[in-house]
Amino acid sequence: MKEHANIPLSDFVEYPQEEMLQRANEYLANTKRRHSIRSFSDRPVPQDIIEACIKTAATAPSGANHQPWHFVAIHSQDVKKQIRHAAEELEQSFYEGRAGEEWLDALKPLGTDAQKPYLEHAPWLIAVFSQKKGGIQTEDKNTNYYVHESVGLATGFLIQALHNAGLATLTHTPKPMSFLTDICGRDRDNERPYMLLIAGYPADDATVPEHALVKKPFDDIATIL
Ligand code: IYR
């Protein structure tokens, strides 16, 4: 194969136009059923489902196709416990004042606090790391581009993939998150923790804050020119 070879696009699927709006609306309805939850069941979820969802995430577009991400999928009870303890310690100081009044006010409708039992109860935690240096080959050490955008896209793909597979998720971003680097044994110089996802079945008593269901009107979020 030539170094810069292009191959014909062979797997694009075109739908009849009358099906397209229906498909778009079905996808919308399905995505509207995705809610962040904070009460997870400990029902096990097979590893191969999580692996397939991570493979979906890794199809996201990325700067120069460098794929500047690494996913650590955690089901070890011991590692989940370490993450819960470290996160709760940080959240404690966050909720006790480090966040500041405005931030704490913004969080009130969500009803969150420093207790994060789901970090131990949910069957899977997925820590997403971004990489400063890399390349198409795993061993490359070139500059990565649009790292935040790329990893954000991959994380979005991952959330959708997990939802599509029938799993509930929560995004978690304790501040600072560097404890994840140590617990997950990642390279401190090249990688930064980007987000922690919790994935599993909702607990029977899982709730969604009413506040989270309020979405802005279309005219506020979009302009057609
Ligand atoms: N990381 C904290 C606080 C928190 C911050 C935002 I912005 C949220 O949307 C939700 C929570 C916590 O997880 O409690």
UniProtKB/TrEMBL annotation:
InterPro entries: Nitroreductase, Nitroreductase-like, Nitroreductase/BluB. It holds the Pfam family Nitroreductase. The keyword Oxidoreductase applies. Keywords: Flavoprotein, FMN, Oxidoreductase. The keyword Flavoprotein applies. Residues 32-201 form the Nitroreductase domain. It comes from the Bacteria. PANTHER family: IODOTYROSINE DEIODINASE 1, NADPH NITROREDUCTASE. This is Nitroreductase domain-containing protein. The lineage of its organism: Bacteria, Pseudomonadati, Pseudomonadota, Gammaproteobacteria, Alteromonadales.
